[in-house]
Amino acid sequence: MRGHAGPQSRRWRETGVCGTRREGHLDEASRKTVLITGASRGIGAATARAFAAQGARVALVARSREALSELAGELGEAALAIPCDVSRYWEVAAAVDATVKTFGRLDVLVNNAGVIAPIAPFGQTDPEAWAKTQEINVTGVYHGMRAAWEVMIGQAGGGTILTVSSGAASRPLEGWSAYCASKAAAAMLTRSADLEGRALGIRAIGLSPGTVDTDMQGDIRDSGIGAISQMARSEHIPPDWPARALVWLAGPGGDEHLGQEVSLRDPAIRAAAGLGA
Fold it and tell me: Which superkingdom heads the taxonomic lineage of this protein's source (predicted)?
């Protein structure tokens, strides 16, 4: 759903509804305010549930008003739904403003919104679709970082910027020129944010989750291009794995990974995040 974020935001306060929250037994995510882009489904929705289950307040950002409303209703009073197009800076800035106005601060930004199309041989890609991928996957990440920057450096405790990355950031894949280029650029944004923001109290980290069983994998399968399109659904990890890893990175576990791309394919990272082998 497109349009200015501020007037469209809505807070849910359904008593007793907030995942598995238990007062007195909350971990490092407790009472943090987390803004998640691409929150309406897949990794984004799973991440919202994971943070809310630990007592965090979550601002849900995506274009789909209906899907956001459903998720916010599920999460209850800790959720703020903000329809927003991340490729438009003024909408992202309004979403950050609405989050701070509602919850008082912004502790964690999760840059998750992204698209993979067009998947096509280089010479058959549509230039407009290719450029749109960069607007969402690169400029959208920058918009989130830029809008959150002054808020985070101006508050006690600073803030954390987590960006969902990909192995495609470091190697080309057949038919994925748009996606690979965008993820490489987003990875450099993480490094740039760390270089300039660490001394100011900003922690910037990228998470490369590997292949995840989301709607995006359906698009990849439908393309029939490359080895990943031939993988069975059972070979992909569930969305709650990267979600739980993001919660872990938002806490002290992320301190040794600042400015890096953390790979969820690494058994040591999975173990540290409390995930399976």
Answer: Bacteria
Query: For residues 132 and 63, is the Cβ–Cβ distance under 8 A?
Result: no
Tokens of 248: 């872990």
Say which amino acid occupies 191: R
Cα–Cα dist 194/189, whole Å = 8
Q: Which of 179, 197, 241, 262 is catalytic?
A: 179
Peptide bond into 209 cis (omega under 30): no
Q: Give the percent of the chain with pLDDT over 90.
A: 77
pTM of the model: 0.88
How is domain 5-16+30-272 classified at the architecture level of CATH? 3-Layer(aba) Sandwich (3.40)
How far is 18 from 118, CA to CA, in rounded Å? 37
Whether residue 227 contacts residue 185, with contact meaning beta carbons closer than 8 Å, is answered with no
Amino acid at 126: D
8 Å CB contact between 78 and 54: no
Q: What is the pLDDT of residue 216?
A: 76
Identity of residue 29: A
Amino acid at 50: A
In what order do the strands lie in the sheet containing 159-164?
A: 10-12, 79-83, 57-62, 33-37, 108-111, 159-164, 202-208, 261-263
Active site residue 142: no
